[in-house]
Design brief:
binds adenosine monophosphate; five-stranded parallel β-sheet; 184 residues
């Protein structure tokens, strides 16, 4: 099963992706986590994307697509995976579709976690993970980027009839139950 977990920053994608990974026995790929790993370890890629992450803007499509395609080529993804934070632009979605179609496969589920904007801002500012991009100004910028560049990805998958909206307000377990119902 190939599943895209979608939603604005603060919707709880990361938390739910980890739980889905355990329950469905599928690896989880978070492009944000991969970038943060590279920044922490000061790799060439990390140096290239550090300022971009700190500003809340998006890393360029060619860099992200190359990273994801290299990752998906690994053996551990052969039975499926959960994508979290990718695709985040329509060109990324088109590149993913093309890659999957070359391999005779396609996305199975596109789940979007919906959470009201005030709640998102509150959650991000209180999550206290000390992420460099979690200041109020940066959070607002990330939400703008989401509306302008990322939300159209949903329309892209809507055309394929894959989108399921999941209420992202409730306890972690309630939301997890809704996600599982949607894929089973
Ligand atoms: P996230 O942890 O998913 O919120 O991602 C943190 C940051 O990493 C984003 O604000 C972007 O700067 C960058 N990033 C993660 N995934 C992508 C992507 N698919 N395309 C472009 N930039 C990304």
């Amino acid at each position: 099963m190939k599943l895209i977990l979608f939603g604005p920053p603060g919707a709880g994608k990361g938390t739910q992706a980890v739980k889905l990974q355990e329950e469905l026995h599928l690896p989880h790929i978070s492009t944000g986590d991969i970038f943060r790993y590279h920044i922490k370890h000061e790799t060439d890629l990390g140096k290239k994307v550090k300022a971009i992450l700190a500003s809340g803007e998006l890393v360029s499509d060619d860099v992200v697509v190359e990273l994801v395609v290299n990752e998906l080529g690994q053996e551990k993804y052969k039975n499926g995976y959960i994508l979290d934070g990718f695709p985040r632009t329509v060109p990324q979605a088109e590149a993913l579709d093309a890659y999957l179609s070359e391999h005779g496969t396609s996305v199975d589920h596109f789940l979007i976690l919906t959470v009201p904007e005030e709640e998102l801002i509150k959650r991000i500012l209180s999550r206290g993970q000390g992420r460099e991009d979690d200041t109020e100004e940066m959070v607002k910028n990330r939400l703008n980027v989401y509306h302008e560049e990322t939300k159209p990805v949903m329309d892209h998958y809507q055309k394929q009839g894959l989108v399921k909206e999941i209420d992202g307000v409730g306890t972690i377990d309630e939301i997890f139950g809704r996600l599982l119902d949607a894929v089973r």
